[in-house]
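Example record

One chain of 291 residues, shown exactly as stored in the release files.
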Amino acid sequence: MKEDFKIDFIGIGAPKAGTTWLGHMLENHPQLCMSVPKEVHYFNDKLAYRNTLMEKNYSKGIGWYKMYFNHCPNHKVKGEITPRYSNDPFVPERIKNHNKDIKIIYCLRNPVDRIESHYNFCKYFVQNEDRSIQQAVTEETEFIEMSLYFRNLSRFLECFPKEQILLVWFDDIQKRPEVLIREVYTFLGVNPDFQPSNLHEKSNQARISQIKGLQEFIRKTQYKLIALGFSGLIGTIKRAGVGNLVGKLNSKPLQKDRVPPDLKQYIQDNVRADVLQLQAWSGRDLSHWLQ
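Predicted structure tokens for this chain:
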């Protein structure tokens, strides 16, 4: 018998554009329940370059996906955020087949800033990148592909009406989080008056790992525990702040590698047409992204 399970909303990216902050705001709302962990990687086949952990999970079936929500009461609105959904061409149709009425959230950030943050995360926290920022960004197509927001969004617009998609801008997270989170809660159909206690906390700041491989070991252990039916326990530990504490103890702040002027021009040249399309579609002034 086919498993009858659906989630109600899904975050599709982009990486380093505020998805961790958004996940914290959603998991704190009493009417919402997030997957554990935040990123399930169910609908995507496209994996990160130099991937050492994620697998192609869609063939495992909906029963496997449901494990990550076993801690969620039936009455709560359920969802997850996997930033790599945004640029995988297989994802939109798969999500539509799962739930044609699902609500989709897409976090967007100035492409130059997003790429800089993405590179530093790979180099210093994940520690799977040893090239210069200039070399990595020009050699790995992922950095630009993840920043072609309108191209990626267009695939979802082929499967879903505009009304089911909400764009969350990183600038708004920084400058007007109270207004923004109210818009998000309203979009999801839950009480918009709820105020998360950590609304003004910065999430997932650039840090360098002290013990290489520890975070990956923790993540692998987490997935094994979920497979054994302990998603609720992991959620409790996470809410207690244990994961954040371990992350901080295993890392320290860093002086980020910056995008040099010629690389900035390279990025802007490659995203310019896409930015202008996104600006026209959304009605939001994005001219500062190209300056």
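Notes: The chain has a mean pLDDT of 89.
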